[in-house]
């Protein structure tokens, strides 16, 4: 954000606003952490603010302070639409294209409000009047901390804000192991701990509350893993039938894709998950080093994201999707062996 944009935000927040804060569909830890962190900050300023999520999110994120005040667009549709229509200021966090919010898209497109985007993904759209985009940041939660800092509000960060932002940074950096984790990230984390983030408890709430069904599903996923050493690639498939057999709940497959990267010599990992309700195969891509899964997902699977973490989808069966995926790999041999 430049000096002019910072002053514009300060001017907007110097007056009473009706604020709506929105994350992407199927929100993850960074999306929920950043929206709730910003929500606490704005509420503490005296602003009338609400968080509206497009749909439900995993149980292991529902411990965050303020979770009970989140409005689910699917479950409280009338209330959500009313708040959006009355909003004077809308923050969109952890996404940069309105196509990422599902059925909420038309509501936001018709909203008579000033938009502020805070996001760290590549190629942002231009729907916002104020765009804070930085692909070098580890997470949107780190960006929200920086946003608060630029507004001169770091001293106003409470333990509630600190816990939310810590959770989002931790999850989006893979517990601080991804390349996006910088010395700045660690300095932000240190300050959040100083301000009350309970790092051990947060880790436990997110990573150590598994159900037996989820661990059995993980076993199924690992059994399904295909390893293509020639292309330094590993992929996992999960059918709808397998999900149902293991009592799948939203968020149960979170992190499964990363297991492929724990194999010696593997730099490209993928998971293909069937979703019969939406009629798609949901795909997550991960890589280490210089192989850009963002470019790969954008070119072949209607997706995108970051250089080392991206998503996409397919409209054909798992068998057809994986066959197509494998057919692409010979074209990337030189990039996979850099």
From TrEMBL:
It comes from the Bacteria. It holds the Pfam family DHH. Residues 249-315 form the DHHA1 domain. Residues 18-169 form the DDH domain. GO terms for molecular function: nucleic acid binding. This is Phosphoesterase RecJ domain-containing protein. It comes from Kriegella aquimaris.
């Amino acid at each position: 954000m430049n000096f002019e944009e910072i002053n514009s935000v300060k001017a907007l927040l110097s007056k009473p606003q009706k604020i709506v804060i929105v994350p992407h569909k199927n929100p993850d830890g960074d999306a929920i952490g950043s929206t709730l962190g910003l929500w606490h900050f704005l509420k503490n300023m005296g602003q009338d603010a609400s968080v509206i999520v497009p749909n439900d999110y995993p149980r292991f994120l529902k411990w965050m302070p303020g979770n009970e005040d989140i409005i689910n667009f699917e479950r409280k549709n009338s209330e959500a639409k009313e708040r959006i229509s009355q909003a004077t200021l809308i923050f969109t966090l952890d996404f940069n294209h309105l196509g990422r919010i599902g059925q909420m898209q038309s509501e936001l497109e018709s909203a008579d409000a000033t938009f502020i985007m805070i996001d760290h993904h590549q190629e942002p759209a231009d729907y916002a009047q104020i765009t804070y985009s930085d692909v070098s940041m580890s997470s949107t939660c780190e960006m929200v901390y920086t946003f608060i800092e630029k507004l001169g509000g770091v001293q106003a960060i409470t333990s509630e804000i600190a816990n939310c932002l810590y959770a989002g940074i931790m999850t989006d950096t893979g517990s601080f192991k991804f390349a996006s984790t910088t010395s700045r990230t660690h300095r932000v984390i240190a300050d959040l701990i100083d301000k009350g983030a309970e790092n051990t408890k947060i880790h436990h709430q997110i990573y150590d509350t598994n159900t037996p069904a989820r661990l059995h599903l993980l076993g199924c996923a690992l059994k399904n893993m295909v390893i293509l050493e020639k292309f330094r690639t590993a992929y996992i498939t999960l059918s709808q039938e397998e999900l149902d057999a293991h009592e799948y709940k939203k968020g149960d497959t979170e992190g499964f894709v990363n297991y492929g990267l724990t194999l010696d010599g593997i730099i490209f990992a993928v998971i293909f998950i069937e979703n019969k309700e939406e009629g798609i195969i949901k795909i997550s891509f991960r890589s280490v080093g210089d192989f850009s899964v963002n470019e790969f997902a954008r070119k072949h699977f209607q997706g995108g994201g970051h250089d080392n973490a991206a998503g996409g989808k397919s409209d054909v069966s798992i068998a057809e999707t994986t066959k197509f995926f494998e057919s692409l790999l010979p074209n990337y041999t030189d990039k996979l062996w850099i």
